[in-house]
Write a structure and sequence with these properties.
- The chain is mainly α.
- The protein has helices at about 1-15, 20-45, 65-85, 90-105, 115-135, 140-170, 180-200, 210-235, 245-265, 270-290, 295-320, 340-345, 345-355, 355-370, 375-390, 395-410.
- The chain has a domain at about 240-410.
Length: about 400
């Protein structure tokens, strides 16, 4: 209860107090710090399974799960303390508390380690997208790109460790040994811990993770993660998991899709509405993983890859649209006073760029592709997830379709 509920309650209260000015933001950071402390205390007091067991019995934590929650909670607590001392906005601390809740839920999910790894990976991607959409003053510096890349690679390494643990459980005594699994998981945890000091060492706000850094990090990391998860899907002879894990992912994915659709319909800035739309799109990914079927997981993987590619175009074009037009480029006028763009015959292209036609066209194409309109890629990925949901419960497929239509309308 403490490890899962307290971070969610702290995030909700922190989000409310964070809108009450500078003093409210400091109170929000303190509330989130209490949520981190309660989550770490709950993980420390939870019963732990045997040290040699890779999986945990219901109601208990494996040793790796306890370490995982403690590391994420302590990292979030350090970020909260930093925000309190420097009197900065506590939005990142509020987002980090949701990551702690997702990590706790996946750690207590049972013996489906692949489900836990997928939850961690999606949480990291969600944080990257929220950073890119909510903090417009953060730019795409080298340090910000390294920060997000290390976080994503750490999550991917953890996913690989969880998948290898499943393979070792299905076929013990093979090439995948216990020592190799422990080494991969240790590497993932080391990378996850390594991003914490990097957050404090960045010199200025212009170097912290922003839209450019998020897009570059996703472009580097997503192809590797997609190939890894597809290889895991083909290596496992069958997909199996506890019913509680499937229900957890299904309910979480449905609520995420509905919340994203409702947030998209609400009035607000363009990039904020895009953030909610991307969040709702991740709900379809969670629903696909929750089916524990090959067609559902394959559809979720394709949706995840398509989601990241579309997000790059959406965020980049929205930033270009919302940025006020700059003054005419004096470099286009040569020493004779003649417009070099007119002389070279590319002036129409320059005019289209200055008036935002290129950015608006790219935004419309990306929005249609994400909405699931055939024959674009969003339709192919959503169709696989809808088929998997229809095989289990047609009401889930109907709810996902309504949420997708609402997002398309917005």
């Amino acid at each position: 209860f403490l490890t899962f509920v307290s971070p969610i309650v702290a995030a909700a209260l922190g989000g409310l107090f964070g809108r009450l000015g500078r003093s409210g933001q400091r109170v929000a950071a303190l509330i989130v710090l209490c949520g981190f402390s309660a989550g770490a205390y709950g993980a420390w007091q939870a019963p732990v399974s045997a040290l040699t067991a890779i999986t945990a019995v219901p109601g208990s934590l494996p040793p790796i799960g306890r370490l995982q929650i403690l590391v994420v909670s302590m990292g979030g607590a350090l970020i909260s303390i930093y925000h309190v001392l420097t009197k900065r906005d506590g939005e990142v601390a509020v987002i980090a508390s949701l990551v702690v809740a997702a990590t706790s839920a996946s750690a207590f999910a049972g013996d489906s380690l692949r489900v836990a790894g997928a939850g961690i990976h999606l949480a990291v991607l969600l944080v990257a997208m929220l950073m890119a959409t909510e903090r417009g003053d953060w730019q795409g510096g080298v340090a910000g790109t390294a920060y997000l890349t290390m976080a994503s690679i750490g999550a991917i390494t953890l996913v690989a460790g969880f998948a290898l643990a499943d393979v070792q459980k299905v076929s013990p005594g093979g090439l995948v040994t216990d020592a190799f699994v422990v080494a991969v998981l240790s590497t993932g945890f080391a990378l996850s811990i390594g991003i914490v000091p990097l957050y404090f060492w960045v010199p200025s706000a212009s170097q912290r993770p922003g839209a450019g850094a998020s897009m570059l990090a996703l472009a580097v990391v997503v192809p590797a993660s997609l190939g890894l998860m597809l290889a895991t899907l083909t290596a496992l002879p069958q997909l199996s998991g506890p019913i509680a894990s499937s229900h957890l992912l299904t309910i979480g994915g449905l609520l995420t899709a509905i919340f994203g659709a409702v947030g998209t319909l609400a009035p607000g800035r363009l990039r904020r509405r895009i953030g909610y739309a991307l969040m709702g799109n991740l709900g379809a990914v969670l629903l696909g993983f929750g089916t524990l079927t090959r067609i559902g997981v394959a559809g979720a993987l394709v949706t995840l890859a398509h989601h990241c590619l579309v997000a790059i175009v959406l965020i980049g074009s929205a930033t270009e649209i919302e940025t006020p037009p700059s003054a005419p480029d004096q470099a286009l006028v040569d020493e004779d006073g003649i417009d070099s763009g007119l002389r070279l015959g590319v002036r129409p292209i320059l005019i289209a760029r200055e008036q935002g036609w290129v950015a608006r066209g790219a935004f419309v194409l990306a929005a249609i592709a994400m909405s699931g309109v055939p024959p674009f890629g969003g339709f192919a990925s959503r169709w696989a997830v809808m088929q998997a949901l229809a095989l289990s419960d047609w009401r889930l497929a109907f709810a996902l379709g309504i949420a997708s239509l609402a997002t398309t309308y917005a």
